[in-house]
Description:
Elements: H1 2-16, E1 21-24, E2 31-45, E3 61-71, E4 76-87, E5 96-107, E6 110-118, H2 149-152, E7 154-165, E8 171-180, E9 193-211, E10 217-234, E11 241-258, E12 261-276, E13 285-301, E14 304-314, E15 327-339, E16 342-352, E17 373-384
Antiparallel strand pairs: 1-2, 2-3, 2-17, 3-4, 4-5, 5-6, 6-7, 7-8, 8-9, 9-10, 10-11, 11-12, 12-13, 13-14, 14-15, 15-16, 16-17
Amino acid sequence: MRFVLAVSTLLFFAQRSAAAAELTLPGQLAQLEVHGFISQGFLLTSSNDYLAHSSEGSFEFTEIGLNFTLPATDRLTLGLQIFSHDLGPIGDYRATLDWFSVDYHWRDWLGLRAGRVKLPFGLYNDSSDIDSARTAILLPQSIYPAQNRDFLLAQTGFELYGYRGLGQGGGLDYRLYGGTIFLDTTPRPGSPVTVVDLNVPFVAGGRVLWMPPVEGLRLGGSLQFLRLETNLLFSGTPGPIAVNIPVMLWVASAEYTVRDLVLAAEYSRWRVRTQSSEPSIFPESLSFSERGYASASYRVSPWLQAGAYYSVLFPNVERRGGREGRQFDAALTVRFDINRYWLVKIEGHYMHGSAGLSSNLNGNRPLSALDPDWALFAVKTTAFF
């Protein structure tokens, strides 16, 4: 029923789409811009369940968004996005405020955003919810894991941003932020652990992008610090265990665009420390994960794009051996733009390793027991205006 409803809405959306809806407000007020999108996807894996119960084929891959932007003055802009999605065990079509902000652009070199603001992490995190902005269905999951969207998309707080020209040295685009992240603790059926609460006391970081005097080239670095605090209840234990997880993430990025060809590469390390009130039950640890990818996409014609990437993930650089210690992902995508407001994508992945999989989705089997070599097939269609 959910799938039928989503497809019916999608078809209606495609027929009714326009370049952008603009509502003229009375008096001298600015125009309110309204944009929206709806996506329906399908996931199928040769073995192992990935993101959803994909080994039998899953339509639990839906996204719906509606955003509003009001340029209140020359320098002040208000905006928000209402978002609902379903991706396997997460989302469940709950409508949320995906992002909302008050943006005061004082000068080119300094502006301030406050509210729930998208996180500038890597090249594409702050545009990851815009399917029409990219060729691939799934961004490289080593850097942009879809199951961690709530952690990585946005933070509630403030952001300072700006652009500074460097003359013959090109220009710098910079963003600096701080705040918190509000997370859902919806229980997962079949999990042996109950999350009593989950808090993020702080998240802080920034991104710098350098546009050197080479047309189409962007080089950048992103850094993020956050702290997770949770209480976990294990079956058979008298009370919850307090767990604190300080995390540091960084990524180095490069992108080169020449005509219709876009080349990109990113390399990242995530440092995760686990502190526990009961180390005998929930052990303490310190791990470094290694992540990266290289990608290429090409616009063959106004209605056809093709793309490919190779992504690598090592959750713990000291334990690279074994299928659970790595995931290699080779992906190919073809995108068809049916018209200005409707697109269809087809994507295939060859996967080696089980590091990016979830035990909960696979009958609580350990990752070391899952198939090491498997394939993912995905189809997605998006209507937008």
